[in-house]
Design goal:
alpha+beta; Arc Repressor Mutant, subunit A; two-stranded antiparallel ribbon; 3 helices; 2 strands; 46% helix; 15% strand
């Protein structure tokens, strides 16, 4: 998904999004590629699945946590 579309959907400024996407890319959670003048980001679902498994086992005592998060714009993310 293009960075601009992610920014709109999340309701955060592009500069803030850029910082977070850079950190997610550094952690292997997303990959990016240039398409013309756009940077396209893709989630690395394998890494995300491994992170959820680790957190569930080590932080939630093996129980699935049912948490929801909202953006500053009030949109529910999960």
């Amino acid at each position: 998904m293009a960075a601009g579309k992610i920014s709109e959907a999340a309701g955060i400024p592009p500069s803030s999004l850029s910082f977070h996407l850079k950190e997610l890319a550094h952690a292997g959670m997303v990959t990016s590629r240039q398409e013309g003048r756009f940077v396209i980001y893709e989630a690395n679902f394998s890494t995300a699945t491994n992170l959820v498994a680790f957190l569930t086992e080590n932080c939630c005592g093996g129980q699935v946590c049912n948490l929801s998060c909202t953006t500053e714009a009030g949109k529910v993310l999960a």
